[in-house]
Amino acid sequence: MTTSDKALCLIIGSGPAGYTAAIYAARAGLKPVLYTGQEPGGQLMITTDVENYPGYPDGIMGPEMMEHFRKQAERFGTEVKMELISKVDFTGPVHKVWNEAGDEIEAHTIIISTGASAKWLGLESETRLANNGVSACAVCDGFFFRGQEVAVVGGGDTAAEEATYLAKLCPKVHLFVRRDEMRASKIMQDRVLKTENIVVHWNTEAEEILGEESVNGVRVRNNKTGQITEIPISGFFVAIGHKPNTDLFAEWLEMDETGYLINKPDTAKTSVPGVFVSGDAQDKVYRQAVTAAGTGCMAALDAERYLTEQGII
Fold first, then answer.
1. Does the annotation count 141 as an active-site position?
2. Most exposed among 17, 35, 105, 209, judged by the fewest C-beta atoms under 10 Å?
3. Catalytic: which of 137, 170, 280, 302?
4. What angle do CA 66, 69, 75 make, to 5 degrees?
């Protein structure tokens, strides 16, 4: 296979990170090939109103926004493939990937933008009322519940952060912790316990989210006493963590104990030369569309510099 047969830049995963990487790579003449994966557009495809992304003064629906991203990437020459990458091999200077059909593709640079998925409780009502009062991101959706009573599930730092954020917008925030203590850091626990309008329910698990068209309450059970309680709320926030979609790279790339890919400081570089990471596959702190897009830009710029340094372009 000649150099011209190999992709200059192959992007695994779509969403704000992947599409932004594609836009920058395409404008740099890298002729990127983007594989969307199982969820083209990423988490924003299951998001309704997006009001915090710059440039949309009236807000925009998540799927429509991702359609804009895709069209812009294609406008500059990105080849978008609605396929899943099922296997990779990063042993040599030229990287290999395989799609589900078993076709082998070679590329000089790889940008990983596979994102992360929110962990859910597994309730039927949670699925049914998703985007109708059920959310996994307070920073994304909390604004829609200002002045209303809401609930947060979780006992770690994420839940503590979500609860304290919502407490600035809502008159009362119920925090359901399934044990008699929180896993959050002490500073975050103190912040929760000192916030007057956060009510912590210890040893409490959500059994069902109530409402037909939208959330109007939650049924919870005390796992020590067995007592069942129904609490009227308008918003239900699941904050039990996220799982990065990085299992495909476990054998090849350096990652932390929870599976987030590790990038070298101030870059999008991974532990393998020519392989870069962007978006929620490496970001466990911010997890916002705008920050994902920013790292997608970084990954494309780093890929272009790598190709130049290697004398490939």
1. yes
2. 105
3. 137
4. 140
CA torsion sign for 281, 286, 292, 297 is negative
Distance CA 134, CA 302 (A): 38
CA–CA separation, 244 vs 47, rounded Å? 18
Q: 208-256, pLDDT tens digit by residue?
A: 999 999 999 999 999 999 999 999 999 999 999 889 999 999 999 999 9
Half-sphere exposure of 114 toward its Cβ, with a 13 Å CA cutoff?
23
Q: Is 297 a catalytic residue?
A: no
Q: Which of 89, 103, 141, 283 is catalytic?
A: 141
Do 111 and 134 contact (CB within 8 A), yes or no? no
Question: At residue 282, does pLDDT exceed 50?
Answer: yes
Residue 43: is its pLDDT beyond 80?
A: no
pLDDT tens readout for residues 48-61? 678 889 999 999 98
User: Is 280 labeled as catalytic in the residue annotation?
Assistant: no
- Closest by CA position to 23, among listed 300, 303, 312: 300
Residues 6+ apart with CB under 8 A from 309: none
Which structure tokens are listed for 134? 């059920």
Distant-in-sequence, close-in-space partners of 10: CB < 8 Å, separation ≥ 6: 32, 33, 34, 35, 95, 97, 105, 107, 109, 110, 111
Helices 15-27 & 62-75 angle (0-180, nearest 10)? 20
Q: Any idea which residue has 């990085």 for tokens? A: 246
Q: Which of 9, 140, 280, 283 is catalytic?
A: 140
Sequential DSSP letters for 108-146: EEEEE---EEE-----HHHHHTBTTTEES-HHHHGGGGT
What's the pLDDT score for residue 241?
Answer: 87
How big is the chain, counted in residues? 313
Amino acid at 281: A
Among candidates 128, 155, 153, which has minimal Cα distance to 212?
Answer: 128
